[in-house]
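Hello K.,

You asked for the raw outputs rather than the summary table, so here they are, unedited. I folded two proteins back to back in the same session to keep the settings identical. This is the first:
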Amino acid sequence: MLLHEYLHALGQFSELKVRWMVYEIARKCFGDGHIATEIAKKSPWALLKGIPLELGDINGSRQVIEIVKDFEQTDDYIV
């Protein structure tokens, strides 16, 4: 994910190009069967497949995972 965001920070590549580049780099560095390559190929959301969006903590209370849309959208860039 850091590589993906780093490539975006350069501001030169489209989302599709960044995804392809991250996949190719992961494949070359880690190989086809590595989890980093699979995540690059399928997206990090593949890790959440089958996990319920409502989870209970160890005390039995229920907490809901909140998906925050447009989290990274800002007018200011912070390095």
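The second followed immediately with the same parameters:
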Amino acid sequence: MSTRALEMFRSLREDLGEAELVLLHQEVRAHVARLAAAQRRHELIAVDLAERLAARLVALLELAPTLDAEARASVVGAARYFCSTDDEAPDEGSCTGLDDDVAVFNHVVEALERPDLILVDD
């Protein structure tokens, strides 16, 4: 993961309560919908990857209330990074626009010792 992506991820980390986690879950789903709509204009957008990443983020967001505050903040940071339109590589910019989002997500699941959730590009 690049230094810029790591710094941005760290700035987005925050321990949220359950109600705010539900809203973030909705933001993740809305971001996937925006990418699907954008794919109609730019067919190279990797919506399939966005959907797989979103599904794993949603799983972590659902698990978040059982995690300690530090881990919960990391999950929030990864979800916010995915939803950000100003991250290192714009998600709508190219077929590699989600690579930085995947790197941030994998960084978080490695820290959480959840290698079963690591996302690899098929």
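The helical segments are 3-12, 18-39, 47-63, 69-83, 99-111.

Happy to rerun anything if the numbers look odd on your end.

Regards,
P.
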